[in-house]
Amino acid sequence: MATKSVIRNVNQHVGETVTIGSWLNNKRSSGKIQFLQLRDGTGYIQGVVLKNEVSEDVWNKAKSLTQESSAYVTGVIREEPRSPSGYEMTVTDIEIIQITENYPITPKEHGIDFLMDHRHLWLRSSKQRAILVIRAEIIRAIQQFFDTNGFTLVDPPILTPTAAEGTTNLFHTKYFEEDAYLTQSGQLYMEAAAMALGRVYSFGPTFRAEKSKTRRHLIEFWMIEPEMAFVDHEENLRIQEQFVSHVVQSVLKNCRQELETIGRDISKLENIKAPFPRITYDEAIEFLHFQGFDIPWGEDFGAPHETAIAEKYDKPVFITHYPTGIKSFYMKPDPNRPEVVLCADLIAPEGYGEIIGGSQRIDDPELLEERFKEHNLPVEAYQWYLDIRKYGTVPHSGFGLGLERTVAWICGLDHVRETIPFPRMLYRLYP
User: Fold this and answer.
1) What is the pLDDT of residue 168?
2) Assigned CATH for 3-98
3) In 3-state terms, the chain is what percent helix, strand and coil (to 5)?
4) Tens digit of pLDDT for each residue in 103-115?
5) Would you say residue 277 has pLDDT above 90?
6) Which of 155, 124, 18 has the alpha carbon at shortest distance from 74?
7) What's the mean per-residue pLDDT of the chain?
8) Which among 216, 208, 213, 212 has a CA at the least distance from the CA of 350?
9) What residue spans define the domains of the chain?
10) Which residues fall within 8 angstroms of residue 169, CB to CB, at 6 or more apart?
């Protein structure tokens, strides 16, 4: 009896007869030979059907298979250096599960709207599968980094009574008789958790109701948000660059074949190792003026500005010490220069923009109360957040990494819509 296997493990069965549950990705024939391109979710393998070595029934079953038809295919595994996987199957039997008719996504070119309407099927393509495998490896590497460096995973709420960064881009809902919002960040809650556990991180969905249609924005996305007690701005930056380096090197080590499948220039990733270059906001403004940009001091950077800065470097670059007026209320001012804050945005190379935003947080309760007034935030709604400073305040820092932007950069994708299984964008809630 044949051993049941998956394509990923056929290297363990060379010379043996195995059965693989699979779909037909593609097919070609040459007289008395049929070549079946099979996939099973774990990988791809070519099944070779020789007319003179199988029954007429098996031969006809192979002929009847159409794109995305499903079947149990049995055969002998052999090494094949010319194959991308290094192995092939000499087919001996086929048990058809379903013959598919008129599969919508054919090998021809399709428009992006058509593909997004059929996202549930587009995921089956080799490129989309490879992206999701890389995404899963990035998630695994993220959790490994924090779990092995003294961080505790904490889950902040998704429904919140207040905003982390203003209410203009929040999804509003009713929580029985009260107003509530879908979270735009778990950061404030993670600060409370850090005071209990020292170093914590969250990993969960966040929502931004921005009516943005850029290639960098999604409405629903995943954020990784560490918070660390007794960590200042400088140590925060060191942890960030070690973290990003670890993730990129893990993908290079464990997903080389997937990177090749999507055509990623691997050489651009091999150089991503700490330390990363750093420039201040002031230096960035000076550079942009030299490059011909008309941007005044005190204005935030847009995508063209970030891209111009990133082009100077072959690694991610920190832009530090932004003006206080354009950053969030909780960021700690530089003691030597209160008009800027102890913060940094990490800009990915190759035009992928900000992948991390972080800062040292305000630990002075009186200063935080002043910030509430300046930003017109109701003190009663944020009293719990102020309590963190009233009872045992300490220097603390944190950051947030956007998963989908990071996947887009590591994969070299043009748009974040391919970085998540079912993207939610301004005009897309289907499928």
Assistant:
1) 66
2) 2.40.50.140
3) 35, 30, 40
4) 999 988 999 999 9
5) yes
6) 18
7) 96
8) 216
9) 3-98, 119-418
10) 184, 208, 209, 210
